Amino acid sequence: MTDKKSLPGNSGASEAATLERSIPFLLHRISDVFAKKMLDDLRPYGLSVAKWRVLSSIKSCGEMTIGELAAFIGLQQPVASRVVSEMEAEKLLRRKSNKKDHRFTLVSLSRSGERLFAEVLPFVEARREQAVSGLTKQQRRQMIAIVHRMESNLGIR
Length: 157
Hints:
Layout: H1 12-20, H2 23-42, H3 49-61, E1 64-65, H4 66-73, H5 77-89, E2 93-97, E3 105-109, H6 111-132, H7 137-153
């Protein structure tokens, strides 16, 4: 196996410098660290990052199918289905028939889910603020616009 450092024009230092200029790499690193810190905040409430994403997505968007939820939060549908089932067993979510299409059920927050969301939200907002501290409102808007453009480029939006 060839050592990457021995390839022409490819030193370990230049590879690290290239990664430091790679937007997808940087976004992944930020996301990974942010998720780990969020887990520290969520764990005392019995929540994982995936469960928080489900709670906050349903709170923001209203009831939706598991497929819609999975697409919105970027989980594979079987994973989203498992998380929803766990949260339903914990009485945080409820399911009901979709009157428009009986093949699908709609997932919504229960009263317990609403209360838990309200209780955890201040900690999540503080963590989000930590991540963007030092950025102006204009920089934050620009960053959101750039990320949305990248999502569009990848067919997410």
